[in-house]
Amino acid sequence: MPNALHRTNAPLLAALLATLPAFGLHAAEAKTPLTIDEALKASAEQHRPVLVDFQAVWCYSCYYMASHVLTGAEWNDVQRKAIVVEADADSPDGQTWMKKLNASFLPSYVVLDEHGNELGRISAEQPREKFYPKINAILATGNTLDRLRQKASRGEPNAVAEVLEAYQARSEGSEGLRWFAALPSSQQQGARKNARVNLALDQLALAKALAADDNATVIANAQKVLAQDIGCQRPYVLDNLLDATGKLPADERKTLLAAQRQPLDHYVDTQVLIAKPACADQRSAVLASANLDDAVGDQAAASAILDRAITQTRQRLGNNLASDRNLADNLRIYLLRAKRTAELDDYQRKLIAAYPDDYVYAYRYGRNLVETGKPAEALPYLTQAADKAYGANRLAVALQRVKALKALHRDDEAKKVASDVLETNGPWFPKQASALKAALNV
Q: Where is the signal peptide (predicted)?
C-alpha cells in the first residue's frame, strides 16, 4: 500500500524529481496539462473529469502501479475518459493540492470535476483487478461524497458502507463517525447488520485515535480491526499496533503482539510471497513480519522472512533491475533491513546504473556515504543527483553536499552550493531551507 505522507504507512522521505505529464488528452490536442489547474481548465472546455495521479520518484508503490497497473488497453481507456495529470508530491503544485484534498497516501488517484470538486478517489497501490473496477465506477457515476450520502439517506443497500469507506479513504475518522452518529437510530441499527459497515466504523475509530495520538485507544481499535478479514490492509494496521505498543512493559507487549503472529503468517504465505500475489504491497508485509518477530523476541524468524523475501525477489528480477522498479527497490530495503551491508553497498551502485535518469538512488547512496564518514566518495554521487533533483529534493541533495563539503573543510564551496539552491528555491519548502541554512553554521 502506501508510501504515504503518513502511511497506511510509509512516511514522506524528502525529495523527488520533476513530474512528467501524463498523456491524458486526446492525441489530436496539442497541449498536455502540466499542472492540476491547467487540467481543470481543460476539463471545463472538454467536459471530462480530471484524474490526478499523486506520486513521487521515491515511492515504491508508485513504481508498482506504473509497471503493473497503469498500462495497456484498460489504462488507455481511462485516459480517453479523463484528463490525467501526474502530480509530484514534492513540487509546490503537488503539495498544495495534496493538502487541499487531504490526500495523505502515495500513490493517490483523485478524480475531480471541472470546479476541483472531488468525485472519488483510490488510495495506495491496487492490483489491476481491483483498480479498474473502482476507477471506472468513479468515472462513470461521479460518486461524490454528497451523492453517496444522498443514496444512504434513501436506505440503498451498502450505501452507508460506501460513505464510511469514503471517509476512511480521506483519513477523516472523526468526520465519518459524526456522520454515522447523525443518522436515525433505526438506520444505524440496520446498517450495523452489514459487515462492511462494522469494519468501516472500526477503521474510522482507529483513524480517529491515530489522529489524537491516543495510544491506548489505538491499541484497542487496532486489535478489533485485525480480528476481522481486512485483506491487504493487515500490515498497515499491524504497524499502527506496533507503534502504539512501543512504550508498554516488555512482557505485556510481547503477549499482546504474539496473538498477531499466526494471522500474519497466514497472510504472508497465502497472499504475498506467492507466485501470483493477491496483495500488491509485498514490502510492507515483509517488514511488518520482521518487525513483529523482533518485537516478540524471535530474531531468527525475522532473519528468515527477510532472507526468504531477498531470495524470491532476486529470482524474480534476474539480472535486469530495470525490468521491475518496484521489486528492485524492495530488494534494496530488504538488504538494508537485514543489515547485509556489503551486499547493499554493491547493490546501490547497480541501482544507480540501472536508473541513471533520476536523482533518487545517487542521492541515497551519497547520503549513506556522508553518514558513514566518506564525504569525498559521496560528492560525485551527490553532484550527479543535484543535476536531476527538483523541488524539495533539490534542498535535500544540497544539504548532503554541504555536509560533505564542510567535512572536507571546503566551506566556501559549501556556501556557494547552499546560496545557489536557496536562491532557486525561493519561498518554497521553508523547513528544508532552514535545515540547509543551519548546516552551514555547524
A: 1-27
Establish whether the linkage from the previous residue to 107 is cis, with ω within 30° of 0: yes
Nearest 5°: the CA angle 235, 172, 121 is 75
| pLDDT number for residue 21 | 30
Alpha-carbon gap, residue 433 to 392, rounded angstroms: 9
Evaluate the CA torsion angle 114, 115, 120, 125 in order and state its sign: positive
Three-state SS for 338? coil
Longest dimension (CA), the chain: 73
Residue 304 half-sphere exposure toward CB, CA atoms < 13 A:
8
407 CB neighbour count, 10 Å cutoff: 16
C-alpha 153/C-alpha 424 separation (Å) is: 52
Spell out the alpha helix ranges (H) of 170-320: 173-181, 185-191, 195-211, 215-226, 234-244, 250-258, 261-267, 282-295, 299-317
Residue 23's pLDDT is what?
28
d(CA 130, CA 64): 14
Beta strand pairing call for 50-55 and 83-88:
parallel
Divide the 442 residues of the chain into consecutive groups of 10 and give the mean pLDDT of each group.
44 30 31 82 88 94 94 95 93 91 93 92 92 94 80 84 89 94 93 94 97 97 97 96 97 97 96 91 97 97 98 94 94 97 96 93 96 97 93 94 97 96 90 93 72
- Cell triple for residue 152? 444512504
Handedness of CA 410, 416, 422, 424 (dihedral sign): negative
Q: Which of 81, 68, 84 is nearest to 22 (CA)?
A: 84
Where does residue 325 rank: exposed (0-12), middle (13-18), buried (19+ CB within 10 A)?
A: buried
- Map 38-83 to HEC letters: HHHHHHHHHCCCEEEEEECCCCHHHHHHHHHCCCHHHHHHHHHHCE
Give the model's pLDDT for residue 30.
34
- 109 forms beta bridges with 53, 122
Q: What's the rounded Cα separation, in Å, for the pair 138 and 78?
A: 11
Q: Is 260 helix (H, G, I), strand (E, B) or coil?
A: coil
